[in-house]
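Input record, target 12 of the design panel.
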């Protein structure tokens, strides 16, 4: 719980067109299904600025649609000010972790950065959500499956904290 009594969760990946928009879309869907949309603020952002303004990659949108999700956010770049807006900043891999924590200006902000893998249950033991961008459909499927697993864990932890 944080400011305004809401859980504020920001999903991060490199480009904000594959993994983190899937995190945003899946988390929003889970929260909505639980009737908790008023208690959450959920967003996503990328480390790079190459895809700013774009919808998620068509391969991730297709994969999401096949699993009942609509990924329709527009890419934006992470800003240092996001540390002030979000209590939980969820990164997909170790490069993401290094990039975001290196922008933190205090330990409290650094502590907001967590790995999606920390919340895995079905995939316990895996340490990252691999980047599917240069891969095939099976890589998008795996990313979506890992992200679903992690988002369920994040929701469970938020509910347990209430
Ligand atoms: P994402 O995937 O970080 O999951 O959005 C990528 C998207 C674009 C690029 C790399 C990864 N890129 O190099 O443009």
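The sequence produced for target 12 reads:
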């Amino acid at each position: 719980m944080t400011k305004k009594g809401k859980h504020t969760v920001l999903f991060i990946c490199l480009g904000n067109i594959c993994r983190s928009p899937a995190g945003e879309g899946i988390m929003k869907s889970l929260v909505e299904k639980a009737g908790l949309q008023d208690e959450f603020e959920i967003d996503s952002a990328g480390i790079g600025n190459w895809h700013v303004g774009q919808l998620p990659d068509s391969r991730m949108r297709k994969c999401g649609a096949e699993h009942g999700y609509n990924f329709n956010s527009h890419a934006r770049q992470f800003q240092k000010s996001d540390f002030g807006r979000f209590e939980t900043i969820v990164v997909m891999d170790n490069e993401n972790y290094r990039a975001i924590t290196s922008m933190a200006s205090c330990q409290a902000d650094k502590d907001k950065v967590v790995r999606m893998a920390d919340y895995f249950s079905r995939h316990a033991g895996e340490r990252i959500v691999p980047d599917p961008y240069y891969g095939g459909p099976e890589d998008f499927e795996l990313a979506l499956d890992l992200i679903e697993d992690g988002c369920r864990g994040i929701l469970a932890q938020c509910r347990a904290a209430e």
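Residues 3 and 85 are 9 Å apart (CA to CA).
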